[in-house]
Amino acid sequence: MIIAHIPAGYLVSKSIALFNNQNRNLYVAAGILGSVAPDIDVIYFYQYTDRTVNHHYFWSHIPHYWMVIAGYSLFLLMLTSRRFFLAGIIFFSNIFLHLFLDTVVGGIAWRYPKDDTLIRFIDVPATLNPTEIYEYGLPGWLLNLMNHWTFQIEIAIVFTAALVFLISCISRIFISVKNRRRYRNESRCAS
User: Fold this and answer.
1) How far apart are CA 56 and CA 152, in angstroms?
2) In 3-state terms, what secondary structure has residue 111?
3) Burial 28-44 (b: 16+ CB within 10 A, else e)
4) Are 102 and 56 in contact (CB under 8 A)?
5) Nearest CA to 99 among 158, 41, 26, 165?
6) C-beta neighbour count of 111 within 10 angstroms
7) Which residue stretches of the chain have pLDDT < 70?
8) CA atoms of 191 and 68, how far apart (whole Å)
9) Are 6 and 29 in contact (CB under 8 A)?
10) Which of 91, 100, 17, 88 minimizes the C-alpha distance to 63?
11) Per residue in 106-142, pLDDT tens?
């Protein structure tokens, strides 16, 4: 997945946050941060590896490490407060959502430390040279992914997240207008 991590994290976080209006922004922020946390390795990938190693082999894309970090972190968060514990659950669930989405075509080492083979659901054939730069300055590997049918899944996730965001904004505007009218009517009745 290339463009669907943040929208997918937003959708999961928003659906969980529906059940708790008080901390909605905290939960959505934790979810969005979790949905991009495994890609922290991209900084290292572009700065130091000269793009010779697939960044899915770095520790931040290996579920084993996230399970250990999640176990310790959630235990500590459980000792603090319920809202931070739930934010931690949302954060780590979105990390594993990211890893699951990367498993579709990118490959993730789910069996690590026993085996570091990248497991993927679908293999995208290289119809273009993956290392060559094509029109609009896009590399071949990116054009291969964008022309594959699995990219339609990403577009659907992005479209759904945009629709949910738009509906959420519109509903907040209507609720705000409704509350202003009610406040005006109550203040007129009181005077």
Assistant:
1) 22
2) coil
3) bbbbbbbbebbbebeee
4) yes
5) 41
6) 13
7) 183-191
8) 62
9) no
10) 100
11) 899 999 999 999 999 988 777 877 778 887 788 887 8
**Which of 108, 111, 114 lies closest to 58 in space, CA to CA?**
108
Taking the C-alpha atoms of residue 1 and residue 87, their distance in angstroms, rounded to an integer, is 24
Amino acid at 113: P
Kindly write down the DSSP assignment for every residue of 42-76, as one continuous string.
HHHHHHHSTT-S-GGGSGGG-HHHHHHHHHHHHHH
Q: How many domains does the chain have?
A: 1
Q: Which two tokens stand for residue 81?
A: 């407060």
Domain that holds residue 80: 5-190
The mean pLDDT of the chain is 88
The whole-angstrom separation of Cα 109 and Cα 101 is: 13
- In this structure, which amino acid lies at residue 80? T
Q: How far apart are CA 141 and CA 124, in angstroms?
A: 9
SS3 assignment, position 133: strand
Q: Which residue has the tokens 């989405």?
A: 101
Closest to 108 measured CA to CA, from 73, 64, 145, 162:
64
